[in-house]
Write a structure and sequence with these properties.
The complex is a heterodimer.
Chain A lengths: L5 E13 L4 E13 L3 E5 L6 H8 L7 E6 L2 E2 H6 L3 E4 L11 H5 L1 H4 L13 H7 L15 H13 L5 E5 L7 H18 L2 E6 L2 H7 L2 E6 L4 E7 L14 H17 L2
Parallel strand pairs in A: 3-8, 3-9, 6-7, 7-8
Antiparallel strand pairs in A: 1-2, 1-4, 4-5, 9-10
Helix pairs in contact in A: 5-6, 8-9
Chain B lengths: L4 H6 L4 H38 L10 H10 L1 H35 L1 H16 L2 H12 L4 H24 L3 H9 L4 H37 L6 H10 L3 H29 L9
Helix pairs in contact in B: 3-11, 4-5, 4-7, 4-9, 4-10, 6-7, 7-9, 9-10, 9-11, 10-11
The chains are: A alpha/beta, B mainly alpha.
Chain lengths: ~260, ~280
């Protein structure tokens, strides 16, 4: 396996959408990198194009200009090699499939997994996200938090080297969100997968990320890429320390300047 | 209705639980009895009106007369029900199959949908009674025109619902399929088709009753056999008892057809009865 310096490297990415009324610049000259094995959170108000940026990396949107390199390949190659996992805002589970069958979906489409893949057992992945015993439950029988856990397990199937997460905990209550944040740090540490995580919560961005990419809206531009100076082992209690509060305040100040 | 706590504790149930169980049983019994009482009272009113107003039998029969006719002429009714059954079931299968196939094509070839969906809408606006003679001229006097009418009448609601069902999949699930590099075929069978089933079945339930209407209307025009033909014959013969009996047989068939489709729906969608995420 070739190791790459960067999991993601975007240079001068610009995306324009043409709607019926007008042309909108969603991303304007955006450049950033995610180090291999890193955890970068994208932070910004709505309309800053952070979901668009995630979709550019996933090859769901082709940028108008700029280059995107994912794991040393083009975004399209990385997608077709099954190097990407994507977790959506709503869990996007198929309601007619059990939790286990939902996790197993990547085995059944797009040619299945490569023989060299890690994480090939849907059952083990459900255990990894803490859902042992819920294999045969249907999505409507699970809580919102559990559904997102299933979606994370599905995204991890095949051991992708980059996990893209689009505000996956945005619709959950705060307690559930906190617990899943803690678990995501654990899953990141256990799997060694690079993660690119979109959020509009300052706390979530600072707590989860090794680095935070702050974006400004209309059009989406990079304000700064900040390295979060926190230990690798993070408990939720960390968020009450003066140091964390300071970091959060700093991030908020950056957002304050860009939000009208 | 007073259960002392001492008595209740003997059965291991609290007084509240006993009261609740009884109330629930009562409610269930009530739900069964009420519709029966409703039907019985309408029949009674009908019988009373015919008796008191001395309605002549060629205008309207009494319920007893209809019952006797149902029994006496069961052979005749059955002989006429069979062709109607064949026509409506064949039309149902044909019309729905065509609708499902065309919906699948529309979803994959947007251009075709844009060009031909309006044509389908226009054909659908022509009333069945107007379409029937055209089809009789085209297809002759046998079962074919009736099957064609039944098929046409099923076709439209199923097409519309099926297109909607196939297209209204969660956009994020579509993105997921793309991230997984799923082929069009896989997207169809793993995502679109299962997603469309609730839509399809709600259309099939409508189609089950309209297919019978289509077959009967078809039989009104130049036919000697079938529920529709018997309705016309009984009307012209002022045999009101036979007319009513025929109508009852027809609607019983239509109802069973509907129930059969509902049963299949329940079996097919058993696991996803609450799928609305």
């Amino acid at each position: 396996m070739v190791s790459h310096e960067h999991a993601v490297s975007c240079q001068n990415v610009t995306v324009r959408f043409v709607t019926e009324e007008r042309a909108v610049t969603a991303l304007d000259d955006v450049s950033f990198t995610v180090p291999a094995g890193g955890f970068l959170t994208l932070l910004g108000p709505s309309g800053c194009g952070k979901s668009t940026l995630l979709r550019v990396v996933a090859d769901l949107i082709t940028p108008g200009s700029g280059t995107v390199e994912v794991l040393g390949k083009t975004a399209a190659q990385a997608r077709m090699d099954r190097s990407l996992g994507f977790v959506f805002q709503d869990a996007a589970l198929l309601p007619w499939r059990t939790a286990l069958e939902n996790v197993a979906l990547p085995l059944e489409v797009g040619g299945g997994l490569k023989p060299s893949s890690r994480f090939t057992s849907p059952r083990d992945l459900l255990a990894l996200v803490g859902l042992s015993g819920w294999e045969q439950s249907y999505p409507h029988q699970l809580s919102g938090g559990m559904r997102q856990r299933v979606a994370i397990a599905r995204a991890l199937l095949g051991g992708p080297r980059l996990l893209l997460m689009d505000e996956p905990f945005g619709a959950l209550d705060e307690m559930t969100r906190d617990r899943l944040n803690e678990e995501l740090r654990r899953i990141w540490a256990e799997t060694g997968t690079s993660i690119l995580f979109v959020t509009h919560s300052v706390y979530e961005a600072a707590y989860l990320g090794e680095q935070v990419l702050v974006l400004s809206p209309n059009p989406g531009r990079v304000v700064r890429q900040v390295t979060i100076d926190l230990p690798r082992e993070r408990s939720l209690a960390l968020r009450d320390t003066p140091h964390f509060v300071e970091i959060a305040a700093e991030l908020r100040a950056m957002l304050g300047k860009v939000t009208p | 209705m007073n259960h002392s706590p001492a008595h209740a504790s003997q059965t291991g149930l609290s007084a509240d639980e006993v009261a609740f169980a009884q109330a629930r049983q009562k409610a269930r019994l009530r739900r069964r009895i009420m519709p029966v009482l409703g039907v019985a009272s309408v029949l009674l009113l009908w019988a009373a009106l015919v008796y008191w107003l001395k309605v002549p039998p060629f205008i309207a029969p009494s319920p007893q007369m209809v019952a006797v006719t149902l029994w006496d002429k069961s052979g005749l009714l059955w002989t006429n029900l069979v062709p109607t059954m064949i026509e409506s079931v064949a039309g149902f299968l044909l019309g729905n199959l065509a609708a499902i196939v065309i919906a699948t094509v529309f979803v994959h070839k947007k251009t075709l949908e844009e060009a031909f969906f309006p044509v389908v809408v226009v054909i659908n606006t022509i009333p069945v009674v107007a379409k029937a003679p055209i089809l009789v001229l085209l297809l002759g006097n046998g079962m074919e025109p009736k099957i064609a009418i039944a098929a046409l009448i099923c076709f439209f609601p199923t097409l519309v619902n099926m297109v909607r069902g196939l297209e209204s999949v969660n956009p994020q699930a579509m993105e997921l399929m793309r991230v997984l590099s799923a082929s069009k075929r896989e997207v169809f069978f793993k995502l679109r088709l299962p997603h469309s089933l609730p839509y399809l079945f709600s259309a099939l339930k409508i189609a089950a009753s309209t297919a019978v209407i289509g077959a009967i209307v078809g039989e009104w025009i130049g036919s000697t056999l079938g529920i529709g033909a018997l309705i016309i014959q009984a009307t012209y013969a002022f045999d009101s008892a036979l007319l009513y009996a025929t109508v009852i047989v027809g609607s019983c068939f239509s109802m069973s057809f509907f129930l059969l489709i509902s049963l299949i729906e329940r079996l097919a969608l058993r696991q996803t009865s609450q799928q609305n995420s």
